[in-house]
Amino acid sequence: MQEISPPPAWREGVIHPAYVRIALVLAERLGLRVDVRMPDTSRMVTLMDMQPLLEKLDVEVNPYLGIDLGSLIPASAHGAMGYAVVSSATVGEAMHTLARYASMRNRFFQYTCQSDAHETRLILLPRMPLGVFQNFCEIGTAVSIFKMIQGVAGDEAASRMVFEAHWEGLVSLSVPMVMNYSQPYTALRVPTEIARRANPTSDEKLYAHACRSCEEELSAIDGNLISRLRVSMPDDKQEWPTLKNSAERLAMSPRTLIRHLAAAGVTYQSLIDDARSEMACWYLKKTSLPVSAVAERLGFSDDTNFSRSFRRWRNMTPLQFRKSVKL
Questions:
Q1: Higher pLDDT, 75 or 63
Q2: What tens digit of pLDDT does each residue of 117-170 get?
Q3: I need a surface site. Which of 59, 102, 288, 321 has the fewest CB within 10 A?
């Protein structure tokens, strides 16, 4: 077993809970039962939160389950971003709008939209290390968002688009677009004639309202204090920051940080406990480190305090948890 820590980005909120709930529906349809720790607040879900579900689905071996997931996601799951896309004036505007706001709901990828005289391209590139989960996440994301553009343009127009997939075409994707697999990156290429077509569901007032909502939500996510704190728990040196340390890094006083967290309905200690719980489960499941070494990495002075805290977090001892995940 590799004695490593997960990438810090795996502790960042990156995926909207709506998509995770749909993935749980997919698991249920496959006869799988899995417990995912959904956030108590409206924050985005971390990759570490999702890891038990992804492992239960065995997406490393079956990344093409992403096709099933992407096909299950309805337009309503995309929130204000979905409304902005379907009310755009043209197909091309829908693509640019999606690229602008997709990170509101899914921050696994960077979304770029480029236009020239010949075509408009919507490109997906990973913005964080996804490891063995990348193909599944990329397939599910691409199918979901390209399906929105297909819905705006219609199947006849979609048949003239080119869907370039970064993954191999071992399982065919049933879409009207021309499919090219094993490409340098995943992209949807739309001829300029199609991109300029009027959207039959265009609604100027709805578009303006939806975009305002998107800008507000995107701004809140980009400046999300809790997400920024979680990534630093622990920091790059695997040290656990004190309240004072974190306040200094955020250029504010400890009292101001406490006030901001109270407004969000959390405490600094609860964030530390949540992060330690996640990291403890990671080490116990993914490494062969003895419990005493795990306790030390998590900043506990002795095994007894760690075991007491772990029982409070997970209703079992560290050894019981390690045995349960190996069954």
A1: 63
A2: 999 999 999 999 999 999 999 999 999 999 999 999 999 999 999 999 999 999
A3: 288
Helix (H, G, I), strand (E, B) or coil at 149: helix
Q: What amino acid is encoded at 295 in this protein?
A: A
DSSP 241-273: --HHHHHHHTTS-HHHHHHHHHHTT--HHHHHH
Distance CA 59, CA 113 (A): 28
Asked whether 190 and 120 are in contact (CB, 8 A), the reply is: yes
- Does the reported pTM lie above 0.90? no
Tally the C-alpha atoms within 13 A of residue 273's C-alpha that lie toward its C-beta. Answer: 13
7 backbone dihedrals φ, ψ, rounded to 5°: -60, 145
Q: Residue 70 corresponds to which tokens in the numbers above?
A: 């992407």
Amino acid letter, 154: G
Is 60 exceeded by the pLDDT of residue 2? no
The C-alpha angle with vertex 39 and arms to 38 and 44, in degrees rounded to 5, equals 100
- List the one residue out of 126, 63, 119 whose CA is nearest residue 91: 119
How is residue 194 written in tokens?
């199609």
CA dihedral of 249, 252, 253, 258, whole degrees rounded to 10: -90
E-strand stretches of 33-156: 45-46, 109-115, 119-126
